[in-house]
Amino acid sequence: MSESQEREILTYELFGTAVRDIAQKVVDSGYEPDIVLSIARGGLALGMGLGYALDVKNLSAVNVEFYTGVNERLDVPMMLPPTPAAVDLTGMKVLIADDVADTGKTLEIVHDFCEGHVAEARTAVIFEKPWTVINADYVYKKTDRWIDFPWSSLPPLVDRRGGLAH
Q1: What residues does the Phosphoribosyltransferase domain cover (predicted)?
Q2: Total domain count, the chain
Q3: pLDDT tens, 99-138?
């Protein structure tokens, strides 16, 4: 099996198609979000695209990490400050955006954060894996393959641990 058959390859062009497809699903469902809450970093591009496609100007982001320090991994992710104030979201219809629901734990923790504070929270992802603990309301494609995203398929230009990445 060739590498391209083993992976999902998301190009920037296909990403544009995915954004419009997800946005159309949101429109068709009748859901009208007041805010798009992106999970950084992977959900930022989707959140921006959905903001434009759905004419939602209120965009926000939240950082979620599984790591607490060097080589220390948590069983569950935690939201990192600054988090959107729950009081600011009160009564809003929130659309949570991320690139992929793999384990689904990141999406779940943000959804749980919103629950009880907002009028309604729904989730949108480009890809969803079959083993996710939370199924997104809006999905472009379901896959069990490794995914190459256009923004992370090439190595960074800078290595933040020191020097240029080459």
Answers
A1: 8-151
A2: 1
A3: 999 999 999 989 998 888 899 999 999 999 999 999 999 9
- 161: in domain: no
Q: Token pair for residue 103?
A: 């384990």
Report if residue 119 sits inside a domain.
Answer: yes
Residue 153, in any domain of the structure: no
Residue 24: CATH number of its domain: 3.40.50.2020
Comparing CA positions, the residue from 128, 126, 146, 151 lying closest to residue 12 is 151
Find the length of the chain.
166
- What pLDDT was estimated at residue 113? 87
